[in-house]
Amino acid sequence: MDATPTFLEQLIAAGHLIPMGVDGLYGKSGVFEDILNKLDALISRHGAAQQAEVMRFPPAISQQNFEESEYLKTFPHFAGTVHCFCGDEREHRRVLDCVAEGKDWTEGQKASGVVLTPAACYPSYPVIARRGPLSEEGVTLDLLSYCFRHEPSLEPTRLQLFRMREYVRMGTPDQVLAFRQHWLEEGEKMMRSLALPLIIDVANDPFFGRAGRVLAASQREQKLKFELLVPVNSEESPTACLSFNYHMDHFGLIWALRTPGDEVAHTACVGFGLERITLALFRHHGFDPKAWPTEVQAVLGGF
Ligand code: ATP
Ligand code: ZN
Ligand code: MG
């Protein structure tokens, strides 16, 4: 019998993840949150030179913006829509009866007009587009949001609700590509300062269905997405902790984002998976941050 506990079981035993009865949904210990918040601050220090505009959105967007984003075309399998009870007293009695009888009570629920945010940058494009054409400098944003993806998993690094810190750039293709190149270097520097083993590789998004395979191949070929990967669950399949995405004119076209020269704006974003980086630190330095290498503690501001 193989009694070696999995990484997930070890995290639960250490109290850092608190099971809630659903795969990919966990409470976190105070220590976990302390590390995550210190990472958030470390990212801010690495991003300070960007003079990004800080915006914080709740973890949901309007159904209209969600539909406009075309997320349903490529990721219908991840989407989480909020549905609500909108019935009368009779319907209320039916719902309670269904619950009592163990039947599906959700049938009569109606779409609320609110959809859970799939990536931290989604709320920002329509908001910036509403301001009118970009200035010569373009726009750089600093975002952080809980994000939802319906991808239940036993890997602690694949959560259904997780926090994504992002910097987003909107502007000319040159501005946007320079931003992505900057973050490829700055992100690597930051992760090396945490003494984490890593590789950077070209990547693709898990687009849905047969058409998705074509999209994924083209995304790779054009090198639109890079990931910074750290072995967390296993050496063989390292985990994407940072992603560097060039969307070209995709969001610019959808929301009519314009440059001062009246061209369609291009956009790019760098995403930091805050839980994933925290888990990578646990994996490589142990479950007690007070026992981590002193350099790593110092980079995070001490424990
Ligand atoms: P993966 O290939 O592992 O599914 P991804 O390509 O879907 O990752 P992005 O869509 O680029 O990741 O999201 C940005 C960042 O958010 C990732 O680099 C990762 O750190 C984090 N992230 C993505 N999905 C999850 C998840 N299910 N749980 C925790 N963190 C996640
Ligand atoms: Zn993004
Ligand atoms: Mg994914």
Structure description:
Keywords: Ligase. It is a single chain. The chain has helices at residues 7-13, 30-47, 63-68, 71-74, 89-101, 124-129, 173-193, 209-221, 250-255, 274-285, 294-300, and strands at 17-22, 25-28, 53-55, 60-62, 81-84, 110-116, 139-148, 161-171, 199-202, 225-230, 239-248, 266-273. It is of the alpha+beta class and 303 residues long. Helix 2 (30-47) packs across helix 10. The strands form three sheets. Strands 3-7-8-12-11-10-9 form a seven-stranded mixed beta sheet. A three-stranded antiparallel beta sheet has the order 4-6-5. Strands 1-2 form a two-stranded antiparallel ribbon. The relative contact order is 0.16. The structure holds adenosine-5'-triphosphate, zinc ion and magnesium ion. Adenosine-5'-triphosphate (ATP) binds at residues 119, 149, 151, 157-159, 162, 164, 205, 240-243, 271, 273, 275-276.
Strand count = 12
Bound molecules: adenosine-5'-triphosphate, zinc ion, magnesium ion
Strand order of the largest sheet: 3-7-8-12-11-10-9
Query: Nearest-angstrom radius of gyration?
Result: 21 Å
Strand content: 25-35%
Question: How would you state the average pLDDT, rounded?
Answer: 97
Secondary structure class reads alpha+beta
Shape: globular
- Poorly predicted runs are none
| N- to C-terminal distance | 38 Å
Tally of contiguous helical segments: 11
Helix fraction bin: 25-40%
Strand count, sense and barrel status of the largest sheet are: 7 strands, mixed
- SSE pattern: HEEHEEHHEHEHEEHEHEEHEHH
